[in-house]
Design goal:
Layout lengths: L2 H16 L2 H8 L3 H15 L4 E3 L4 E3 L1 H25 L7 E7 L1 H18 L3 E7 L13 E5 L8 E9 L1 E6 H7 L13 E4 L10 E5 L2 E5 L5 E3 L5 H6 L4 E5 L4 H6 L2 E4 L8 E7 L7 H11 L3
Parallel strand pairs: 3-4, 3-5, 8-11, 8-12
Antiparallel strand pairs: 1-2, 5-14, 6-14, 7-12, 7-13, 9-10
Helix pairs in contact: 1-2, 1-3, 1-4, 2-3
Length: 297
């Protein structure tokens, strides 16, 4: 095979994963013009167009997608093997890309992130927060963090962070105006703030436990949000009741700003997991990340 084609394939793979020349140049540590030139030369030598380019976007062509599918597996194994060998006697290093939900970042990672960064200064950590389920392989991520029930298929997963309680919360003002629900079924007569999953568009049901039984309810929503960070503002403003991860609101609960209701029906805690495709040839940077953050359970 033409050695110039082999040399350009890592650049091609990074452009495809990053979604553009500028993003790829930052990850590769070379100029945008060098990335662009490498892709042009690769296309010229192969005699095919790999990317459709506009002033605002770069998108794989059909043949470009076929090439990416062909090289993704072998190049991933090769880079993992090289990194594992190179780091056998040294500190973990390199670019580590993690996709995670905003809640996973807040509950599992951010509390001890500074300690990890100080412990592993040679690891260049990139956290991409997205509440949609992301294909970590096709999008070039090393691992992801999600609630266990939302993991991709065929993934190795490791529990991380503490089991996360969920509570129905409202402001003192709202409860003074609307009253306090005594059972989950009472929520049909209340203003309820609910979450819509980005991507699928599905409304998240409210989950409760009655004895050994788990029940899910779908009460009318007074307000629908697709960003968990907005729920705190809505709850504090007295706009309604919301089922929240308790760890994100402990301070407001302790101060009395938010009141927890229906505690007798609180559902089983949820567990976040770090997930990744395989344990084979796992890079030292990923092993360090997994081992560090699973300790906070």
């Amino acid at each position: 095979m033409d050695p110039n084609i082999l040399a350009a394939l890592p650049v091609f793979r990074m452009v495809a994963q990053a979604g553009g020349f500028t993003a790829a140049s930052g990850r590769l540590g070379i100029s945008v013009s060098a990335v662009s030139q490498s892709i042009r030369q690769l296309e010229h030598r192969m005699g095919i167009r790999l990317f459709d380019r506009t002033s605002r976007s770069v998108r794989l062509t059909e043949r470009g997608r076929l090439l990416l599918d062909a090289v993704e597996g072998p190049m991933g194994l090769l880079s993992g093997a090289i990194e594992t060998i190179g780091q056998a006697d040294g500190q973990p290093s390199g670019h580590l890309r993690i996709t995670l939900s905003r809640l996973a970042a807040e509950i599992c990672v951010l509390p001890t992130l500074a300690d990890f960064v100080r412990r592993y200064p040679a690891v260049r950590l990139e956290l991409s927060t997205d509440d949609r389920l992301t294909d970590i392989v096709s999008n070039g991520f090393d691992a992801g963090i999600r609630v266990h029930g939302a993991l991709e298929l065929d993934m190795i997963s490791v529990p991380t962070g503490p089991p996360s309680r969920r509570s129905m919360l409202a402001s003192r003002d709202y409860l003074a105006r609307a009253g306090t629900p005594q059972s989950p079924e009472d929520l049909s007569g209340h203003a309820v703030v609910r979450y819509r999953f980005p991507g699928s568009g599905r409304l998240e049901p409210l989950t409760f436990r009655r004895g050994d039984e788990t029940i899910q309810l779908d009460p009318p929503a007074a307000l629908i949000l697709d960003d968990n960070s907005h729920f705190a503002l809505a709850s504090r403003a007295g706009l309604g009741l919301a089922q929240r991860f308790r760890a994100t609101e402990e301070a407001a609960i302790a101060s009395g700003e938010l009141i927890s209701v229906l505690d007798a029906y609180e559902p089983e805690p949820l567990q976040f997991h770090i997930y990744f495709p395989s344990r084979d040839l796992q890079p030292a940077k990923l092993r360090a990340f997994v081992d560090w953050f699973k300790r906070v359970r």
